[in-house]
Each structure stands twice: as C-alpha cells, then as structure tokens.
Amino acid sequence: MSGSFLYFAYGSNLSSKRIHINNPTATRKCIGMLKGFRLDFNNWSKRWGGHCATIVPDLNEDVWGAVWEINSCNMPDLDRQEGVERNIYKVLDVTVKTDTNEELLCRSYQLCSLPDNRIPFEQRLPSKIYLGTILQGANECGLPEHYIKKLMSIDHNSFDGPVNLNQND
C-alpha cells in the first residue's frame, strides 16, 4: 500500500498520544465538522471501563473532530484498533467540512451496534477516563469552545482507570 488517507476522529483518537500508539504516521491536518450526526455512546469496553463513542445520523446535530492524514500502511492497524474484524466498529466514509469550509472525504468508524434510544443514556455512559481522553484531545486539537462545553456536559460513570491503551477489547 502506498499513499495516505484522511481519517476523521471524534473520540479517543482526538488525542495525539492515543492515535500514535497504533498509527505512528498520523499527522493532524485540521479540525472539521460532520454535519447530520450526533455523538453518542454504546458497547461496553473493558479497556475503558465504560461505553464507547460512536456517530449516529441526526439531521439536527453536528460532530466536531480531528482530520488526520495517515500513511496507508497504517490502515490495517487503525482497523484493528477499532475492532473492524471483530464487528465492533465498521468503516464509514464521511464528508467533513473543515474550519476553512473545505469539504474532505474521510474514513471514519461507527459502532456496528448503534444505541437504542429506548435504553436511557444513563445505562450507556462513558467512563470518566475515556471522556477525559476525548476532552483532552478536543482541547489539544482546538475544537470550538461551544463543542468542548457540550462534551464537558456529558455524564460519565466515574471510572477513572487504570486503562491499558494497547489492549484490544
């Protein structure tokens, strides 16, 4: 494989420390917004001690994240990290609008098992450490202040670690 691809990260991979564990060629290109989706949580993660982030179609919402440029040699590593072969996440091609109004076609990931709105959000909370990793990455990337405030308002289940970021679950 040669070349590179663009990856839209909205969860723990907002953090450069986190993404570089499995994708050492990743370079943050910009930030961007995915229109018509909302950030939500589902699927319990042993690694994180809480539920994982996903994007869910919602015409009234937007998700902000980081656009990473990654060498194509790392695509299998990113897929493995996201559990594609284990049917945890699936690949989703999305169009992201950058903060300079450029539209970029990016690879992203969506949980195979989307949240069921009949199950209260309180039963699918992220852990404190996972949400903290997302917030740290959001600040590091320079996501808009209104979006960071929205992330800060998300409830968590109080689990604060430890976690093994190299573990696959």
From TrEMBL:
Coiled-coil intervals, chain numbering: none
InterPro entries: G-Glutamylcylcotransferase (IPR017939), GGCT-like (IPR013024), GGCT-like_sf (IPR036568)
Gene3D superfamilies: Gamma-glutamyl cyclotransferase-like
Active-site residues annotated for this sequence: E82 (proton acceptor)
Origin species: Ranatra chinensis
CDD domains, per the entry: GGCT_like
SUPFAM superfamilies according to UniProt: Gamma-glutamyl cyclotransferase-like (SSF110857)
Pfam families: AIG2_2
Protein known as: gamma-glutamylcyclotransferase
UniProt EC number: 4.3.2.9
Keywords: Lyase
